[in-house]
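Students often ask why we bother encoding 3D structure as a string. The short answer is that it lets us treat folding as translation between two languages. Here is a chain of 244 residues written in the first language.
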Amino acid sequence: MNLLLLFAIFLSVFLLSGIRVIFEYKRALKFRFGKYIKTLQPGFRWIIPLVETIQVVDIRVITINIVSQEVMTEDNVPCSIDGVVFFKVIDPEMAVLEVEEYTFAITQLSQAALRDVCGKVELDTILSKREEMGNNIKKIVEVETKDWGIDIIDVKIKDIQLPENMKRMMANQAEAEHSRRARIILALAEEQAAGKLLEAGKLIDQSPSAIKLRLYQTLSNIAAEKNSTILFPFPEEVLPKKSK
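And here it is in the second language, the structure alphabet:
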């Protein structure tokens, strides 16, 4: 009786120890004596204890950071650039069997690709075309990872750190550009104002009554200022003419 009880307990522990629950966003590779058998789908699964093992792979989109890399651009400007990589495992079997640690491998590839891409262009290109730089890095990484069952979704450049002297130079350049634009706008405004004044002068010359209306308007503006003395200019046509 005791032997049967011990056997029942042992059997229960044996069966329970083989129970595995695989979540919807994961897949599990089953190995028997170290040999790959199949990929287990989500749900309640059972493996033979001590004989079979599983390795779980997350198939959601995974994000890894590209640590800051020291880069010398084509125009010999030193800078530090970091980024982020978005990828997804589309073939768990290849991701486990073809590369030892795919996350670490992608990180190393991304760092090397970032240095390679950014080192071949000028600083202005990196600053103004981050999206293009990220796509170029993505293409390089994809060439290697396509045999690992991994899809590189996107690569983004996050931050670009420049030397302090370069920051000051860029700030001075931006200030000079703003000043140039302001002078251009002011010159255009003066040109337009001069044109309007010229048109108004021609119109007044063509109509004597317009001169009088302008004179009355000027007197009205002077009176509003409450000045004690007003100089009233008479038009020539109202002055008495000298007899010849």
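Translate back mentally: Residues 164-206 form the longest helix (43 residues). Keep this in mind for the problem set.
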